[in-house]
Design a protein that fits this description.
The protein has 324 residues and is an alpha+beta fold. It has two domains: 2-83 and 267-306, Immunoglobulin-like, CATH 2.60.40; 90-213 and 225-265, C8orf32 fold, CATH 3.10.620. The chain contains seven helices and 17 strands. The chain has helices at 96-101, 103-109, 127-136, 141-155, 169-175, 180-193, 216-221; strands spanning 2-25, 35-45, 51-54, 60-66, 70-83, 157-158, 177-178, 198-205, 226-234, 238-243, 248-249, 254-260, 269-274, 279-287, 289-291, 297-299, 305-306. Strands 1, 2, 3, 4, 5, 13, 14 and 17 form an eight-stranded antiparallel β-sheet that branches. Strands 11-10-9-8-12 form a five-stranded antiparallel β-sheet, covered by helices on one side. α3 (127-136) crosses α4 (141-155) and α4 packs antiparallel against α6 (180-193). Residues 210-216, 289-293 and 298-315 have low confidence and may be disordered.
């Protein structure tokens, strides 16, 4: 098992005083058969008194308010998580022909994860990818799920800034590029179009080597920023995690935080405030530990600025974090 300590920091800097800030965050990792959240702590500056509850999809939601005037809001979510390799085996999955016969039953059992949603509407232009995945599937639902992850990885370019936090599947198809949030949505669209329930998962990707910064794609997405992938329900096997950004099934390096129909259900930080000040967001940041020769853990911090355009609305929504 892997033991990892995470610190996710989000900062809002305002160019004038704001007040009556109401916020909710989904930053506490899951407890399930593949991982255990040993501890979680949420702190804010200015200080607040967060309350916690579970949402419709079972995710932990923390809510807090900052009523006095302030020019900066800092949110720190610290977690200690134990992870292990997923136990799912796609080799025993049903055939796609059997899936076709189960469409009504699957829709009844997994309605929320089969119908179109805000970020995953019915999309034109996915038919060629759908046919390619079926051709590469070997006729099985598990083979189709693996093929979809590979195809999205191979046909779309990872490019920060090519999309934005509100981009949908249509935007990704048009751009031919995106970030992990976009690729997860595209994989979900393809799975749902084939009759397989699929859900969006937010979380983190631990670098393959915690002692190094990594290279290539993982240097961009790994360990230091929030990540996203998808779960596909494969009849005969169960829910399977698939990471289309890497083109592989998920592993013990994936830390699950929240899941839902799409990004709209699991935004890490969301809120509103009163005031006419513009804002600048620094976020999507994971602080990961290094273990010294004595076995002690230390947190190193890196904050990546994300530009946000000023707003003059009386109650503007705070900039949401795009998962990269």
């Amino acid at each position: 098992m892997n033991r990892v300590r995470l610190l996710h920091v989000t900062e809002f800097d305002y160019d004038g005083p704001v007040s009556e800030s109401y916020n909710e965050v989904r930053l506490q990792p899951y407890d399930d058969e593949d991982q255990h959240c040993v501890g979680f702590r949420l702190r804010t500056q200015p200080t607040s008194s967060p309350t916690a509850s579970r949402d419709y999809f079972g995710n932990w939601v923390h809510r807090f308010n900052v009523m006095p005037k302030h020019r900066r809001l800092r949110v720190e979510a610290e977690s200690v998580v134990m992870t292990q390799e997923p136990g799912i085996d796609l080799g025993g999955s049903e055939t796609l022909t059997v899936v076709d016969r189960q469409r009504v039953a699957l829709l009844d059992a997994h309605y929320d994860f089969l119908v179109p949603s805000t970020y995953v509407p019915v999309a034109d232009g996915i038919a060629p990818l759908l046919r390619a995945a079926e051709d590469a599937s070997g006729g099985s639902a598990g083979g189709f799920a693996r093929a979809v992850a590979t195809l999205v990885h191979d046909h779309f370019r990872y490019a920060k800034g090519s999309t934005h936090v509100h981009s949908s599947v249509a935007d990704v198809l048009a751009a031919g590029a995106g970030v992990c949030q976009d690729f997860a949505h595209l994989l979900i669209a393809l799975a749902r179009a084939r009759g397989l329930p699929a859900r969006y998962v937010s979380g983190y990707l631990i670098p393959a080597d915690a002692d190094e910064d990594g290279n290539g794609l993982e240097q961009v997405i790994g360990g230091r920023a929030s990540h996203a992938w998808a779960d596909v329900f494969v009849p005969g096997s169960g829910w399977a995690g698939l990471d289309p950004t890497l083109g592989t099934p998920t592993s013990g390096r994936h830390v699950r935080v929240a899941s839902g129909r799409d990004y709209g259900d699991v935004a890490p930080v969301r809120g509103v405030y009163r005031g006419q000040a513009g804002q600048r967001l620094s976020g999507n940041v994971l602080m990961r530990p290094a273990v010294d020769d004595d076995g002690c853990e230390h947190l190193s911090e890196r904050i990546d600025p994300v530009p946000a355009e000023p707003s003059s609305d009386a109650l503007p929504q705070q900039q949401q974090q795009q998962q990269q």
